Amino acid sequence: MTSRVLIVDDEPALRRALDRALRGVGCEVVTAGDAHLAYQVLDETDVDLVLLDLHLPQMSGDTFFLALTRRWPRLADRIILMTGDSFPETEHWPAELLRCPLLLKPFTLDVLRRTVLEVLEGPAERRAGNGPA
Question: Is the dihedral of CA 73, 75, 77, 82 positive or negative?
């Protein structure tokens, strides 16, 4: 079965590069440039994993993470965070956010693929779609 990944990042060139890399390992990819588009995608499509930039226009990625996991609780362990910050401000993050894998930009495509595959290979009970618990 093909895994569907949602990439949420406001940088179009990065979204395209991530899209190509993940398609190369057999993932189906959908993208959104901001939180509002990501909500629309998630309302219309089940996804298996979300790659989420922490710096989005209109809403920070950590705030959006909390909103995502409240509305789609099955995604809680299926979100990979991305940031260009060398030292992300994590001391005030809730425990659920701290459990997410964090990719520091720039990261290699090998690190991306390995992290995505590790999260996708997690427990089977997490693969039941976006719907409410």
Answer: negative
Element (H, E) at 104: strand 102-104
Q: Which two tokens stand for residue 32?
A: 């959104």
Preceding peptide of 106 cis, ω within 30°: yes
Please state whether beta strands 49-53 and 28-32 pair in parallel, antiparallel, or not at all (unpaired): unpaired
Q: What domains lie within the chain, and their CATH numbers?
A: 4-123 (3.40.50.2300)
CA atoms of 67 and 9, how far apart (whole Å):
16
pTM recorded for the entire structure:
0.87
Least confident interval from 28-32, 52-56, 64-68, 94-98 = 94-98
End-to-end CA distance of the chain: 22
